[in-house]
Automatic annotation (TrEMBL):
Organism encoding this protein: Crenobacter intestini
Function statement: Essential cell division protein. May link together the upstream cell division proteins, which are predominantly cytoplasmic, with the downstream cell division proteins, which are predominantly periplasmic. May control correct divisome assembly.
GO biological process: cell septum assembly; FtsZ-dependent cytokinesis
Protein name: Cell division protein FtsQ
Subunit composition and interactions: Part of a complex composed of FtsB, FtsL and FtsQ.
Cell compartment(s), UniProt: Cell inner membrane; Membrane
Amino acid sequence: MWDNHKLLGGVASVLLWVSALLLVWAGVFWLIHSPLFPVKKISIEGRMERVTPVQLRYIAEHELRGTFFTLDIDATRQAFGKLPWVKEAQVRRRWPDQLDITVSEHKALARWGENGLVSTEGQWFDAASDQSLPVLSGPAGSEAEMARALERFKAILAPAGLAPVRVGMNERRAWRIGLSNGVELELGRSDVDARLARFAQSWTTTLAALPYRIETVDLRYPNGYAVRMPDYKAPPAQ
């Protein structure tokens, strides 16, 4: 082998190329990780009403790590996503030293029991709000379904001048609604929208005119409903 000059020349050429490639790789690695390319500017955009500049500045100062090339985009996106009202953060590099971050916020639709909020997209998120919001309660994982139901219930009740302030669905998928006028509705598990529409029509034509306080309306009957009026006293029998 050592007498084979052609083979030795080939091996030497390969080693030379490998050495050159390793040298180039080392140079690129050093350049990428060197302090010559720091992130000097951070541009944050988006229509923000709940996320404050102080919160954004804190994330930028304490959570972002690395140079322009080595900064982890996914980790940066997740860092801004930790803020309570942030729905999504999009992050991209802009040569030579800037990060462009676009933040979008959740829009609260309702409270989820006593724990967090539900967005207009049916997503639960952990944040506090001083808004006057309806309260939803239901099985875990039903947030999106209940958000859609709340919007339907609002539309059905609006012509009667009523609005839901509490909407609950139990494990058996039976619905109960608390209205803005204090009336509680039992809707059961089936034909919920149709039953609610029947109530809205009856409220406008009949129930609102009754001279008694209505406490609950049970709509779980195929062709009617039962009304509980604590102040009502039946007339004496003749």
